[in-house]
Design a protein that fits this description.
This protein has 364 residues and is an alpha+beta fold. The chain has five helices and 22 strands. The longest helix is centred in the N-terminal third of the chain and has 13 residues.
Length: 364
């Protein structure tokens, strides 16, 4: 059947259609303009019996003792603490570029012990440090959990991950990352998908825009912009952001064998090949019936299994796909055979092995 519905999802970018013009800001990142990862250790309190068991999480007990000691509570080292309303957590956050002191940032809270849920808890004051060991933010607040866990005597239902939570705007920036953008005399643009053609087009777009800067391609992943004189660098970068180019890239076919997803790039070409795909479909169904003894007789009730096996043989015949076809012709030819996405995966691998597929074949 022509254009038969595939078993998996095939996403196609039709060849021959004009490639989209995209902004430079969407395909590059700027040197020095980057975020920083922060991490901290803290306590979540106020849980409804779903916190850490102190016997299995000794670090939670030590943290509770240390916290209460700093708050003026006496020595608890010899006391039996049996609370289940506290959980030890790791707190992570991304410090965005140019974050100023006093700015709020979001944080993620993840259970470290054997707590079953963080729902309803409150994160206590937690310092967040960077890779250099310095404290850049402090987090605190009521946590928000998207998952839940319900447990009964004979059943348990868990939805999502109740031991991971977020606190929106839960941390306050206390230290800024020193970076003076206006002091730079040149800035490098790093392409997210390195390609010599795309880099050359970015260089040409910047030089033709008439900005007070000169662009020079260093390699397939880097374009250097040299600033002339004392220019307004943030303003110049804002202008470069909105310049548009047509990105390019190698012909590639990406296959996710687990889900049957196939993504074929628009530049994929194949030589003339004849394709035939056939095979067996084996269906096995199991059922059971109960055999009981006759009334007023000696015997046992037994379960009699029953198996039904059906075999369907399919032979699609040959389909010829013309030489140097474009993507649409390739997809139409494969669909004309009347096969699904998982069979197409095998066909593409075979065409590649025959040397007729002019593209990178990547299986993930």
């Amino acid at each position: 059947m022509f254009h038969r519905l595939m078993l998996g999802l095939m996403i196609c970018l039709c060849a021959g259609a004009a490639a989209a013009q995209v902004r430079i800001k969407d395909i590059v990142s700027y040197e020095g303009v980057r975020g920083n990862q922060l991490i901290g250790y803290g306590l979540v309190v106020g849980l409804d019996g779903s916190g850490d068991s102190l016997r299995n999480s000794p670090f939670t007990r030590k943290s509770i003792e240390g916290m209460l000691g700093r708050l003026g509570v006496g020595n608890l080292s010899n006391e039996a603490i049996k609370t289940r309303n506290t959980a030890a957590v790791m707190v992570t956050a991304d410090l965005p570029p140019f974050a100023r002191r006093g700015s709020p940032i979001d944080i993620t809270v993840s259970s470290l012990g054997d707590a079953s849920s963080l729902r309803g808890g409150t994160l206590l004051v937690t310092p967040l440090a960077g890779a250099d060991g310095e404290i850049y933010a402090v987090g605190q607040g009521a946590v928000s959990v998207s998952g839940f866990s319900v447990e009964g005597n004979a059943a348990e239902v868990t939805e999502g991950v109740p031991t991971v939570a977020r606190v929106d705007n839960g941390a306050i920036v206390e230290r800024e990352v020193a970076f003076d953008l206006n002091a730079m005399r040149s800035i490098r643009l790093a392409l997210r998908n390195p390609d010599f053609t795309t880099a050359a087009r970015i260089e040409a777009a910047i030089n033709q825009a008439g900005a007070p800067a000169r662009a020079r391609m260093l390699d397939s992943g880097t374009v250097e912009v040299v600033i002339d004189g004392k220019s307004d660098i943030p303003g110049m970068l804002a202008a470069i952001d909105n310049l548009t180019v047509e990105p390019d890239g190698p012909a590639r076919v990406v296959i996710d064998a687990k889900s049957g997803t196939i993504v074929i790039g628009s530049n994929v070409r194949i030589d003339e090949v004849a394709i035939s795909q056939g095979g067996l479909t084996v269906s096995v169904s199991e059922s059971a019936s109960v055999s009981q003894p006759n009334p007023i007789s000696i015997g046992d009730t037994v379960v009699v299994p029953s198996t039904d096996i059906q075999i369907q043989r399919r032979d699609s015949g040959f389909a010829v796909v013309g030489g140097q076809v474009n993507l649409q012709q390739l997809v139409d030819g494969l669909n004309a055979i009347g096969i699904g996405a998982r069979e197409i995966i095998s066909i593409l691998q075979t065409i590649k092995a025959a040397g007729a597929l002019h593209a990178d074949l990547e299986i993930i």
